[in-house]
Amino acid sequence: MKKFIVLLVCVVVLLVGDKSGIESSFDPKKAYEQGEAFYNNKEYDKAFEPLKKACDSDIADGCRMLGALYANGIGAEKDLSKAEKLFKKACDGGDMLGCSSLGFMYYSGDGVEKDQQKAVELYKKACDGGEMIGCGNLGVMYDNGNGVEKNEQKAAELYKKACDGGNMDGCRNLGVMYEKVMEQKKTR
């Protein structure tokens, strides 16, 4: 009887399978790192699956990078609706570059209804969260009066913050503002 029970347990394990080894060995962080490496090496087709697995496991950076694949039509068929949802999931999950990417969609009206105020909100969230691209983009909004009242002083502050944080676009935009001021002084 003991042999029968042992044999029965072995058959059940073989038929059902021991899923614990597979499931417990999956590491969403490692999937993200693998996807990120493929993405950075421009192997977008290979990046898709690990980034999808990372995003499905709520790795916000993975959602943002997967959104970039859909937004740009690289490694995935271009689908701006999916990109928007993934950038939103990334942003909601704390990925500030995801907030900035979503903000750009609203700024440009690419795949979503153009909404300058929504872009400002998202850029502000990104900037407040330490994402310098968001600070630079928010500076552009203040510089041009898009979605906010035009305020060159605020724009300069945001460009400086972005530049100090390593964002070269912020440095360039700040330099352009200084150049305008110098030109205005010369013509007086």
Q: Which secondary structure elements does this structure contain, and how are they paired or packed?
A:
Blueprint: H1 2-16, H2 20-25, H3 28-40, H4 44-56, H5 60-72, H6 80-92, H7 96-108, H8 116-128, H9 132-144, H10 152-164, H11 168-186
Helix pairs in contact: 3-4, 4-5, 5-6, 6-7, 7-8, 8-9, 9-10, 10-11
Characteristics:
mainly alpha
Structure description:
The protein contains eleven helices and no strands. The longest helix has 19 residues, at 168-186. Mean pLDDT is 89; it is low at 4-23. It is mainly alpha-helical. Helices cover 77% and strands 0% of the residues. Helix 7 packs antiparallel against helix 8 (116-128).
Q: Compute the CA-based radius of gyration.
A: 24 Å
Overall pLDDT metric:
89
Contiguous helical run count: 11
Oligomeric state of shown chains? single chain
Shape: elongated
Beta-strand proportion: under 5%
Secondary structure: helix percent: over 70%
Largest sheet: none
Number of strands: 0
Straight-line distance between termini:
105 Å
Helix-strand sequence: HHHHHHHHHHH
Spans where pLDDT lies below 50 across 5 or more residues: 4-23
The secondary-structure class comes to: mainly alpha
In short:
This protein has 11 helices and no strands. The longest helix is centred in the last third of the chain and has 19 residues.
